[in-house]
Amino acid sequence: MTTTLITGGTVVNTTGRVEADVLIDGETIVGVLPPGSELLGSDLKRTVDQIVDATGKYVLPGGVDAHTHMEMPFGGTFASDTFETGTRAAAYGGTTTIIDFITQYPDQRVLDQYNLWHEKAAGNCAIDYGFHQILSDIQPESLTAMDELVDEGVTSFKLFMAYKGVFLSDDGQIFRAFQKGAENGALMMMHAENGSVIDVLVEQALGRGETGPINHGLTRPWQLEEEATHRAIMLADVADCPLYFVHVTAKQAAMQIAEARGRGANVFGETCPQYLYFSLEDQLGAHSAERGEFEGAKWVASPPLRSKHEGHQDFLWKALRTNEIQMVSTDHCPFCMKEQKELGADDFSKIPNGFGTVEHRLDLLYQGVVDGKITLERFVEITSTTPARMFGLYGKKGVIQPGADGDIVVYDPNGHTTISADTAHMDIDYSAWEGFEIDGKVDTVVSRGKIVVQNDQYLGRKGDGQYLKRGTSQYLT
Ligand code: URP
Ligand code: ZN
Ligand code: ZN
């Protein structure tokens, strides 16, 4: 077993920062010690196998990205990152745990899909991984499967109010699943957009010959996210179950969540870097001479980017600061332009939906610290500690303390990162984040005691990552 000492850095937890050395024995943190510990002169020095010099740097708990879609079958193709490429890219960016969504379509059995996801991930992941389960068109068999999955450590279930005929469940189906969640302690997750109305708007836009990517956003207005968010909160109220909103984009949806929390409901929200940084206007202005209007396909995801003039982005940053929104995940679901996004060249509704961001989440959120939008401790909270607590991993993940897994990011506040598809490691032929400048840099990444990234080199191996059988959420009363 390797013993690792991370020395000279500033250890940051949600509770504050302290100059300390971190000792990892094998896979587990065994000590947070006084800096430059005199202990180094004695027994400890003899037993330490590797030292990571973190002088002048932050020592952070490894990132937990609770929303990824590796190899997801979607939009007539598959998300371009496999578990192998996607988790390696995540490691480069300081994420040491992902929670990926098992995808179930209406003609598939939930438990078959659960087994399939294990087959896809086992032996391929660079970092630890857990699963949520997507439930489409919920039938009695899916409700039974929910009990079995909770026993397997899949303790959260995503339902959809959009994508009719693909993922959508109607209100009655959603309500039954909510009742099951209330019974078995699972955390219910919601994609909140009013799919029936979106389908009408899409049909009408296409009928008018409006086929370009920008129409994706124009046919999914914020009112339809707000309405669905409100409706889901009311259904959860009646079912008395906790509810977590994925990828919140609209200020008004965030306000619905804040209002519910204000009256004591177990309602939570995540947002994603793309909704903090990009707007509908960015997408509109992204036309290139070469690709023309279709360049905007790079920024097609659901829910869509929101208009800058309506203030959604600023509101979401504020909501993160004030805990109206609890955390940030990536919704990593990359599709190449070539042969994937291009499927929608003549019809925006056929553009596969999603961004590739798993590698950049920590950098993009750290920039929020530099820009004074969140504190360093809050950065740790929204990228690591809260996701771990929300999804039953805390103690092992999300904190630097004895007994936790040795998942550490040494982050250099004096370093610099320029994001580019040329240097990123995700399997995607462009970067929506091209040219973003970050005033910081991932220096070293340790996953369960093993140095997996250092000096921009990947030192891990596929299969290092283990399945995480999760407990239930710590936030539920
Ligand atoms: O556009 C998105 N968000 N793609 C991934 C699937 C989902 O709804 O999370
Ligand atoms: Zn979704
Ligand atoms: Zn997603």
Automatic annotation (TrEMBL):
Molecular function (GO) terms listed?
dihydropyrimidinase activity; metal ion binding
InterPro entries in UniProt:
Amidohydro-rel (IPR006680), Hydantoinase/dihydroPyrase (IPR011778), Metal-dep_hydrolase_composite (IPR011059), Metal_Hydrolase (IPR032466), Metallo-dep_Hydrolases_sf (IPR050378)
Enzyme Commission number(s) of this protein: 3.5.2.2
Its cofactor is: Zn(2+)
The answer, when asked if Metal-binding is one of the entry's keywords, is yes
Q: Which parts of the sequence carry N6-carboxylysine?
A: K158
Write down what this protein is called: Dihydropyrimidinase
Q: Which UniProt keywords apply?
A: Hydrolase, Metal-binding
Spell out the family assignment given in the record's similarity comment. Belongs to the metallo-dependent hydrolases superfamily. Hydantoinase/dihydropyrimidinase family.
Q: Which residues form the Amidohydrolase-related domain?
A: 58-452
Its PTM note reads: Carbamylation allows a single lysine to coordinate two divalent metal cations.
One Pfam match, given by its short name, reads Amidohydro_1
For this UniProt entry, what's an example GO CC term?
cytosol
Task: State the organism named in the record.
Answer: Brevibacterium yomogidense
